[in-house]
C-alpha cells in the first residue's frame, strides 16, 4: 500500500478526481512541455459528463495558462478508468508531437499510461486489514505504531499539518454565509446549524447538531472551491474533520491524541483504496462517503479506546451500511446530495463506533472489513454508469439542469 501522504492531500475543491487530479496531470505535462504552442484536451467519460460542474476544464485551462488550451467533451469512457483524458501537445509549428493518456483515479491520484506510466511507491507490505491486524498482534504494537513503523521520520509533523488544515476548513466554513457558486444557488447553512447547536438544550440533539454543522462547513467550503483535505476524497472531505473537530471541541481530546486517531482512520481508507476504489466515477458514492464513514468510524473507535477487533467492527459497519450508495450529483456540482451526505455520513460514523463499543462485547462480528471492501468493489461494478458520477441518473436526472 502507498503512504498515507497519498491519501490525505491538502487542496481545493470541489472534486479530487475532477479538479485536483486533472490539475496535477496538467502541471506534470506543463513541466515536460513548457514550450508548447498549444494544448488540446479530450475529456472522456465522467470527466466529460460532469466536468463543467466540477470545474475540470477551468482548472486545466488555469494550470496551462498562458499557453492556450481547447477541449472536446466525449461521453465514452477510455479503457482503464471512467475518469480519463488525452492531452494533445502541439509544437511551435502547430504540429502534434505527443498525445498523453492520463487517468484521475480518485483522491487526487493520477495514472499516466504508455511511456509515462509509473508504478506507485509501496510503503506498507501488508495489503489488507486481515494481514495488518495479524501483524500488529504478532508484533505486540498498536495500529498507530504500525503506521509510524512504515512512514518516514517527518510523518508526525505531516499529521499535525493535515489535522490543522482540516480544522481550518471547519472554522472557515462556519464563518461564511451566502450562496455557493453555480447554477443551483445553494444557500450555505453550516453557520446557522452551528448557532442552533449552541442554543439547543437537549444534549443529544446538541452534540449531533455540532457534528453535522462541522461536516456541512467543510463540504460547503469544498463545493465553493475552498481549501480542504481529501479524506479520502474532496466529495467526502467533511466527514473525518467533523468527527475530529467534535472530539477536539466537545470531548476535549488533545491534538497529540487526535493525530493518532487520524492515522488509524487512514489505514482503513488505504485498504479500500488499494483493494477496491475511492472514486465515485468508478464505484459510486459508496466509494467516497462510504469509505470516509468507515475511516471516521475507526477514528472514533480509537478515541473510545476500543481494541483492534472493535475498531475494525466500527469501520466495517461504516462501509457496510453505505453499500450501493449512488453518485448522482445534480447538475454535475458537488452540492446536492453531496453536502447533505457528508453530514449524514459523519453521524453514521459516530453511530458505528458506538454500536461497535456496545455490541462488540456481546458477540463477535462475523463480517470482516476486507469482506465488505470486496463486496463494495463488486457492487460498484454492478452499478449502472448512470449512478457513477455521470449525472445521467438518480437525483441528477430527476432535477436535471
UniProtKB/TrEMBL annotation:
It comes from the Bacteria. This is L-serine ammonia-lyase. InterPro entries: ASB_dom_sf, Fe-S_L-Ser, Ser_deHydtase-like_asu, Ser_deHydtase_bsu. Belongs to the iron-sulfur dependent L-serine dehydratase family. Residues 139-396 form the Serine dehydratase-like alpha subunit domain. It is an enzyme of class 4 (lyase). Pathway: Carbohydrate biosynthesis; gluconeogenesis. Residues 3-58, 74-111 form the Serine dehydratase beta chain domain. One of its GO terms (biological process) is gluconeogenesis. GO terms for molecular function: 4 iron, 4 sulfur cluster binding; L-serine ammonia-lyase activity; metal ion binding. Keywords: 4Fe-4S, Gluconeogenesis, Iron, Iron-sulfur, Lyase, Metal-binding. Its cofactor is [4Fe-4S] cluster. Its EC number is 4.3.1.17.
Amino acid at each position: 500500500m502507498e503512504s498515507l501522504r497519498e491519501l490525505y492531500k491538502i487542496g481545493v475543491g470541489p472534486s479530487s478526481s475532477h479538479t485536483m487530479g486533472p490539475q496535477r496531470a496538467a502541471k506534470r505535462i506543463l513541466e515536460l512541455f513548457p514550450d508548447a504552442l498549444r494544448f488540446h484536451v479530450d475529456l472522456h467519460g465522467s470527466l466529460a459528463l460532469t466536468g463543467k460542474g466540477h470545474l475540470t476544464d477551468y482548472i486545466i485551462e488555469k494550470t496551462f495558462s498562458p499557453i492556450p488550451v481547447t477541449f472536446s467533451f466525449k461521453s465514452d469512457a477510455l479503457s482503464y478508468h471512467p475518469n480519463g483524458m488525452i492531452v494533445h501537445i502541439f509544437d511551435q509549428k502547430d504540429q502534434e508531437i505527443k498525445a498523453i493518456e492520463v487517468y484521475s483515479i480518485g483522491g487526487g491520484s493520477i495514472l499516466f499510461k504508455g511511456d509515462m506510466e509509473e508504478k506507485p511507491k509501496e510503503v506498507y507490505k501488508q495489503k489488507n486489514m486481515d494481514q495488518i491486524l495479524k501483524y500488529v498482534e504478532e508484533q505486540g504494537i498498536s495500529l498507530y505504531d504500525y503506521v509510524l513503523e512504515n512512514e518516514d521520520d517527518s510523518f508526525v509533523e505531516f499529521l499535525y499539518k493535515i489535522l490543522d488544515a482540516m480544522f481550518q476548513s471547519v472554522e472557515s466554513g462556519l464563518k461564511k454565509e451566502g450562496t455557493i457558486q453555480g447554477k443551483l444557488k445553494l444557500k450555505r447553512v453550516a453557520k446557522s446549524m452551528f448557532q442552533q447547536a449552541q442554543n439547543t438544550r437537549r444534549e443529544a440533539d446538541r452534540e449531533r447538531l455540532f457534528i453535522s454543522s462541522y461536516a456541512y462547513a467543510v463540504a460547503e467550503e469544498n463545493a465553493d472551491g475552498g481549501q480542504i483535505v481529501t479524506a479520502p476524497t474532496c466529495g467526502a472531505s467533511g466527514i473525518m474533520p467533523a468527527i475530529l473537530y467534535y472530539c477536539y471541541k466537545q470531548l476535549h481530546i488533545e491534538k497529540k491524541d487526535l493525530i493518532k486517531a487520524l492515522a488509524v482512520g487512514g489505514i482503513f481508507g488505504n485498504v479500500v483504496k488499494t483493494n477496491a476504489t475511492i472514486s465515485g466515477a468508478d464505484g459510486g458514492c459508496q466509494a467516497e462517503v462510504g469509505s470516509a464513514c468507515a475511516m471516521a468510524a475507526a477514528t472514533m473507535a480509537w478515541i473510545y479506546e476500543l481494541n483492534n477487533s472493535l475498531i475494525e467492527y466500527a469501520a466495517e459497519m461504516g462501509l457496510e451500511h453505505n453499500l450501493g450508495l449512488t453518485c448522482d450529483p445534480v447538475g454535475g456540482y458537488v452540492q446536492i446530495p453531496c453536502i447533505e451526505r457528508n453530514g449524514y455520513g459523519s453521524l453514521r460514523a459516530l453511530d458505528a463506533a458506538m454500536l461497535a463499543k456496545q455490541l462488540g462485547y456481546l458477540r463477535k462480528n462475523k463480517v470482516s472489513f476486507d469482506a465488505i471492501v470486496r463486496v463494495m468493489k463488486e457492487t460498484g461494478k454492478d452499478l449502472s454508469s448512470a449512478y457513477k458520477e455521470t449525472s445521467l441518473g438518480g437525483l441528477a436526472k430527476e432535477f436535471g439542469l
